Structures are given as structure tokens and as C-alpha cells.
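TICKET: design request
STATUS: open
ATTACHED STRUCTURE:
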């Protein structure tokens, strides 16, 4: 089981309280995780990644195990601690401005 922490605005949109827990079939990759998340919460489609290209939205970042995984390929394996549920996968809305 993989634990996912969504930012507050996406939790509200998905009607999810606290962490989301998902089971992933096969290899635990970002693509598999996001596919499972969007299947469970269809209202999140297009909010985390683009509908057409499936690329991460510019102001969305992924973190796990104190590492920024935002620039990892979508088919890169997630850290073992995330796969086992020991550590959560964090989806964070990045901030910009000056």
C-alpha cells in the first residue's frame, strides 16, 4: 500500500481526508501511482499532470524520503520505503513569486 499526501486544495476537490492509501498493481512508478490516484479520484485528472502529454504540471512537485522526485521519469521506480508504505509520497503545490 502506498501512502499519498495531497495538498489541501486537491484533498478538498477529491473529498479526501488526510492521507490517501492506494494499492498499485505491478511496478511502483510515478505513472502507476498517478494512474491509480486518478482512477480513484477522477476529479483530479488534469490537476497534477496534463491531460494530453501526461507531464507533471509546472507548479506541482513530488517528494518522498526527503528527496525531490519531480524530475524523475514517469517510469522510474519509487523508493522502496514509499512502495512499502513506510514513507508517504508527497504531492506539493510549488510557490513562485518575488
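STATUS: resolved
RESOLUTION: sequence designed for all positions
ATTACHED SEQUENCE:
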Amino acid at each position: 500500500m502506498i501512502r499519498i499526501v495531497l495538498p489541501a486544495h486537491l484533498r478538498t476537490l477529491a473529498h479526501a481526508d488526510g492521507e490517501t492509501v492506494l494499492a498499485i498493481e505491478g511496478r511502483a512508478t510515478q505513472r502507476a501511482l498517478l494512474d491509480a490516484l486518478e482512477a480513484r479520484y477522477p476529479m483530479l485528472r488534469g490537476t497534477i499532470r496534463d491531460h494530453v502529454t501526461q507531464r507533471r504540471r509546472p507548479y506541482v512537485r513530488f517528494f518522498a524520503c526527503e528527496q525531490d522526485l519531480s524530475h524523475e521519469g514517469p517510469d522510474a521506480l519509487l523508493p522502496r520505503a514509499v512502495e512499502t508504505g513506510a514513507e508517504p509520497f508527497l504531492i506539493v503545490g510549488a510557490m513562485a513569486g518575488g
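CLOSING REMARK: The radius of gyration is 13 Å. The mean pLDDT is 93.
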